[in-house]
Batch of 2 targets.
Target 1
Amino acid sequence: MTLFATVELAPRDPILGLNEAFNADTRTDKVNLGVGVYFTDDGKLPLLRAVMAAEKARLEAQPARGYLPIEGIAAYDNAVQNLLFGADSALIQAGRVVTTQALGGTGALKLGADFLKRLSPEAVVAISDPSWENHRALFESAGFKVENYRYYDAASQSVDFAGMLASLKALPARSIVVLHACCHNPTGVDLSTEQWQQVVAACRDNGLTPFLDMAYQGFADGIDADGLAVRLFADSGLDFFVSSSFSKSFSLYGERVGALSIVTQSREESARVLSQIKRVIRTNYSNPPTHGASLVATVLNSPELRALWESELAEMRDRIKAMRQALVQKLAEHGAGRDFSFVLQQRGMFSYSGLSAEQVERLKTEHGIYAVSTGRICVAALNSRNIDRVATAIAAVLR
Ligand code: PMP
């Protein structure tokens, strides 16, 4: 028997599978709402002007390509902390936040997971029901048992908050709770300020370890407003983790620009925690890549480029909101026969549309419109040219 003779074919990634089917579809008016990226109104992946300016400056400077420190570019790590915790954060000043550059938000989650596995090998990881599909796989591959906590209530198209609290309270102490810091993927349904306060209290009362996943800062209400959950946990005195990503907010998906931040009790504790995270990095990929993080650091540390980036981010945020408005209005015009105003309350790139798997299938076969079978659609893939077709098709499959 040769080495690979018994290797099983792994299941296909459902979203990548959808993209393949979309690419193979020959209809010229097909629309892909299954993706998880932001497109401009022209249907293109944007290259931000702030990024182009930083890239030009970097090329002109012709920097040598040495290794970075294991924890990444210091100016980048500091800029990440300021965005997440606020520039005037007492925790940062007290040396209680450890931040390391990571390979996107995914890489940050994995670094945190590997470190946590050494700290609390028996801990259970709880993720929202539903959650980003990679959360479960990622924590399971780090060796954890993964459970769901109640989150989305399909009947009310909002959070089953009583259910969520009950789930959190039932978890054993030391359990790790993965929370979407804003713009919940896949539902678009976030917690209110009061609900976040209660989640913080539940984590404290039950000795849980919060792990905030911040993949969309700036896509709901703005950079600082979207930092609300992180700031509430920062005020709580708890130890917690934050994975963050610039994939979406800088449109730098393929450059893999993210970070892991860990809040500790003291500067001295931070030094010990950092030494362990560096060990995880060193034994996985030694040190992070330079290009993307240096662009982000340049933009965030230059007042001019930062202002430009903030305006470009606001443009993305506003366009998504305009598409939510247009979708709701056009669905009504096309006689969808259902109240879709909940779409306006959802935040970020996604919307749980409430469409069934069967209706999603009909959208694809009859209309060439691709969405995830759960009914998740990417609002950031709607534009002024496809919105009418999408609304007409949704109304048709609902009749
Ligand atoms: N967490 C969530 C909730 C996400 O939606 C995503 C990206 N789709 C990630 C993490 C991963 O981000 P990245 O592409 O930067 O690895």
Target 2
Amino acid sequence: MTSIPAFEHTPIDKISNICGDVRNAFLSHKTRPIEFRLQQLRKLYWGLKDHREAIVEACKKDIGKSSFETYLTESSWCENDIIFMCNNLEAWAKDEKAPDGKLMDTAFSPRIRKEPLGTVLVIGAYNFPIQLSLGPVIVAIAAGCTVVLKPSENAPHAGAVMQKILAEYLDPTCYTTIQGAVPETTAVLDQKWDKIFYTGSEAVGKIIAKKAAETLTPITLELGGRNPAIVTKNADPRLAARRLMWAKCLNAGQVCVSQNYTLIDKSILPAFIEQVKKALGEFFPDGPQKSADYGRIVNKRQFDRLKKLLESTKGTILHGGHMDEADLYIEPTVVQVNDEHDPLLADESFGPLIPVLAVNDIDEAIRIANSVHDTPLGIYPFGTTAETDKILNQTRSGGASVNDGFYHASIPTLQFGGVGTSGQGAYRGRASFECFTHRRSVTTTPGWIEGLLDVRYPPYNMSKQKQ
Ligand code: NAD
């Protein structure tokens, strides 16, 4: 079994040199050949395979994640992303011919070269510590960039395992890790970057965006949720309850794309609540705390925040409510709230708090969803096709899963990203490659065409214009 190395903050006085070395590696053109990128991706694949047990152990220690969830959403997720990239890389990296225009233009071979953006910084969040850090790293490698990874300090074991894998399996001059919290990240942000890829909260996203704006550095921001689920009167309450409870119990609700609140037609609220209780009982027959499949809150700070948030609601707890600070455990807790202004709707809970608000009809649900946050990361309508289409047509969101909780985020060929304040830019699928690639427009002017080009040279005259 591979042991987990110790987590150590990177000394701040070393950060500038580390980043400079990675920049120099890009400038050496080492990462440009496709074969080099494929070789590095294959090595990373084996690094992940060799460290599967360490990854499981790290995610268990960091966030109480079950082995199954770690396998599904962290290790095999990244392994599959690597296979997907390797299978598509050559096709995506090829020059793209410009669409046919004027006949003469084709003589100039107008085309788009796919160029790596350069040296990129990837800043990860804690909740899927491996996936959200290595996912963008995999793509940046595929695109031919050199990379500095700054994982979340709130998942230190996962951070340490990734640092070990990158150092032992990849070319250390091209890909490296900087560990730390705000002071280290601030020092990292002071360096020169060709792209910053950030996953995390909206508040920190603004700090990153401001910093990047000073140097016109392009950014991708994968930000917070506040996502609504809408369950109409024609939805199947059992199906909606099982799927939404799955989405809220995975990672103990610490999922950016999980529903933050559910708006439900008042006529099926009782049936829905009954099915919610039934589903939770089926998922965790001995209760969630005793189940190996239910995670924990990442740390005391987040535990206290969730506790305070639950205390602030004016709603009624219909199920759950148990908390155990020593174990950082919070039971999936269903709260019926009275109105759309309840803090459980306004704030992103990012935990297993499950507010439900009864509505009179679909129009009221749409109005409330749009007024709580008009550009959430995801939206989850349940109902007939006509109803779910209406909801999609009258709302905005980064993505959507119809009749499910966040399934769209798990499709590797589908791009993922926010809109408005839930994010900028997207990755996964082909969008991943484009995220770290500059589409460089190029033409080549052949020598034989000079006679035809005569028209463009001064002195100009009207007879030339007629040619
Ligand atoms: P966070 O914003 O606290 O931290 C994310 C990263 O930012 C960490 O690496 C951290 O070290 C760094 N950071 C924190 N404060 C900073 C500062 N002042 N200056 C510079 N860097 C700083 O987020 P988190 O608690 O790790 O994750 C939870 C949030 O992330 C939620 O809002 C969630 O919705 C969001 N999230 C979004 C996605 C997505 O794909 N859209 C995925 C996961 C999480």
